[in-house]
Amino acid sequence: ERPVYFATGKPQGLGKYKNRTTGVSSTAAKFASAFALGSQLLKEYYPEFCTKIAGKASEAFKYAKTDLGVCQTASNRAPYFYEEDNYADDMELAAAQLFLHSKNIKFLSEATYWGELEPVTPWMSANAARHYQWYPFVNLGHYLIALNSDSLTREKFTGFLKKGIEDIQRRGKNNGFYMGIPFIWCSNNLVVAALTQISLYHQLTGDKQFDEMEAALCDWLFGCNPWGTSMIVGYPENGDTPADPHSALSAAFHLKIDGGLVDGPVYTSIFKRLKGLKIVHDDEYAEFQSDLCVYHDDYGDYSTNEPTMDGTASLTYYLSYMEKNEQTNPFPGYMLSYGGIIRGDTISKEIHLVFTGDEYSDGGKYIRKILKKYNISAHFFFTGNFYRNRFKKKLIENLKKDGHYLGAHSDKHLLYASWQNRDSLLVTKEEFIKDLRNNYKEMAGFGITKKDARLFLPSYEWYNETISAWVKELGLILINFTPGTRSNADYTTPDMEKKYVSSKEIFHSILNYEKDSDTGLNGFILLLHIGTHPDRTDKFYYKLDELLTELLKRGYRFTAIL
Q1: CB-based contacts of 456: which residues, under 8 Å, 6+ apart?
Q2: What is the C-alpha separation between 43 and 484, in angstroms, rounded?
Q3: Over the stretch 171-210, which tens digit does the pLDDT of each residue have?
């Protein structure tokens, strides 16, 4: 258990080590801004409580002025504590929040005064900091002042935000990761702070000049870094994420702590001098460690692999902003990958059943019969080759008559991008558009127009951002299967050896995923093939009846993707 200390404005610490507290402002002002914000957000639900905490916010702000200075956390046996070294930003935010609560212009004037004392959050310019020396790591007060002031003040405070971003950009633009963040303890928190400041600046100005850096910093958190791992426990669900975080909840009690943002890499020089730190397991990232910085997915590394509450909370804001931003995701509630929809709403127990076909259709009659049995509508995406084949005409007509969705899957079943390097295109834009238009020409022979079939599923289920952009230009919507199960491997044949997946394995992979995932198969785009090579005698579609029975029993409905 940890003791609670009074904010006395004096140095504290029970043991050998003492902090360097000089006042109460930084803590009292944080308290004031949090309570003022809470009183706004909750007043519709708890009016009496909100009146009370609004009063507490005002009292705390007055107290913050009685002893101007910083209030640091207290250490005991270890020399580490949060070395808060500024308070102007805290006073600014408190005054700004009190203005929003009370509409009293004096608070906005006070916020402006404090904001001008610290135009840029110091770490952004200094490229270094002691542990939590300048916290919070982003200046939210600047944004609130710019949002609620006259044009001149707005321009000034928007400029303050821009200056901090430019300082980070200047350091990062010459390295491959566009990484201008110092690798101090909790470096990931600084990444989130930078992302937040960029997003706030963009909301104020519409200026897109920092979009590339924003994307790179976001990618860093999700795995585009020297270690190739996401920095968020359990997210994305099927990715490489911290599996052995420094947390008693997971280590001792084996509880999931998905969503926690870990500290992130630190300078190797910092790592080597930390006390009581011991790597417990073999370092799986040993070959990627450097003289510059290190990261360990290891319970023993409290410096790089401990989930932080403030970092995680800050990240929820940025990710919520991304989710809400229609330009980022024009389909709210849907999961995107490389610009294409790969999963629907994970709240509802709905599955989107998809079948693709090019050369083979041997499962067509049986699949149609089973879908009729359960009165389920599915999606069928066929190539031009499939639509042209006269032996498949009757099947296509029957599927259409049954009310199933019929869509495009490329005319000639082209491979658009390299398997080894997804960003490397194997087709030109002209070739891609011509091929897709030819696919729709063949569909027109069955009375299917582009308006009827805006969903497009790329051949080989393989594409990249460029393909998604071309699809969008054509007024279409790219979709793909949801990763996590082996359903899309039902085409494999025994001669593929290790890549071959039996129908039994596929069946269990689907049900096991449903059982083990927190969101089950909610919103899943479950992809199967309407036919497979004759060498595959173990046809998975013969398990469709059993699979649908089980999924319906578990409460799922089968619905349209859009």
Answers
A1: 381, 407, 408, 409, 436, 471, 476, 477, 478, 479
A2: 42
A3: 999 999 999 999 999 999 999 999 999 999 988 887 778 9
DSSP state of 316: H
Q: Are strands 340-343 and 335-337 parallel, antiparallel or unpaired?
A: antiparallel
**Structural element, H or E, at residue 380:** strand 379-382
Distance CA 501, CA 519 (A): 25
Q: What is the pLDDT of residues 367-387, one digit of tens each?
A: 999 999 999 999 999 999 999
For residues 74 and 18, give the distance between their C-alpha atoms in angstroms, rounded to a whole number. 7
- Residue 505 identity (one-letter amino acid): E
First to last CA, the chain: 51
Ordered domains of the chain (ranges, CATH): 1-118 (no CATH), 335-558 (3.20.20.370)
User: For residues 502 and 331, is the Cβ–Cβ distance under 8 A?
Assistant: no
User: How confident is the model at residue 336, as a pLDDT?
Assistant: 84
Instruction: Determine if the peptide bond prior to 236 is cis (ω within 30°).
Output: yes
Distances in whole angstroms, Cα of residue 44 to Cα of each of 38, 51, 94, 103 = 11, 11, 22, 18
Question: What is the full DSSP assignment across 238-292?
Answer: TS---SS-S-HHHHTT----TTPBB---EEHHHHHH-TT----S--TTGGG--SS
Q: Token pair for residue 543?
A: 């398990």
Query: What is the CA 33 to chain-centroid distance, rounded?
Result: 27
Prediction pTM value: 0.61
Q: What is the pLDDT of residue 321?
A: 85
Separation of alpha carbons 506 and 526, rounded Å: 12
